[in-house]
Design brief:
alpha+beta; Rossmann fold; two-stranded antiparallel sheet; 5 strands; 31% helix
Length: 97
């Protein structure tokens, strides 16, 4: 998952070397919704959340015992630098489901 032009370009370039057999790239549209504070309606209406659910193969109401039931065992999110309170943070998250 990429957020921002530079992270999308970087991920696209890396796919050339890594190949597309086990890696893919998907650009997020807007600011990612904080799912802890969102209502059910907000989750259902958010395009990025719905796309992530489709990409992973998540089914509403299903309890997952392990990652083998999902389409991917890992998810990487790459975002651009963010300026907050005059501090710069570069976010590259490697999330293991």
């Amino acid at each position: 998952l990429t957020k921002g032009a530079s992270s999308t370009v970087f991920a696209t370039d890396q796919l050339y070397f890594l190949g597309r057999d086990q890696y893919g790239m998907f650009p997020l549209e807007g600011k990612l919704l904080n799912v802890r504070e969102a209502s059910h309606e907000e989750l259902e209406e958010n395009t990025d959340i719905q796309n992530i659910k489709k990409i992973l193969g998540l089914q509403e109401g299903k309890i997952y015992e392990n990652v083998n039931e999902l389409r991917y065992g890992h998810l990487m999110s790459m975002t651009n630098e963010v300026c907050t309170n005059n501090s710069y943070y570069a976010f590259t998250h490697f999330l293991c489901l």
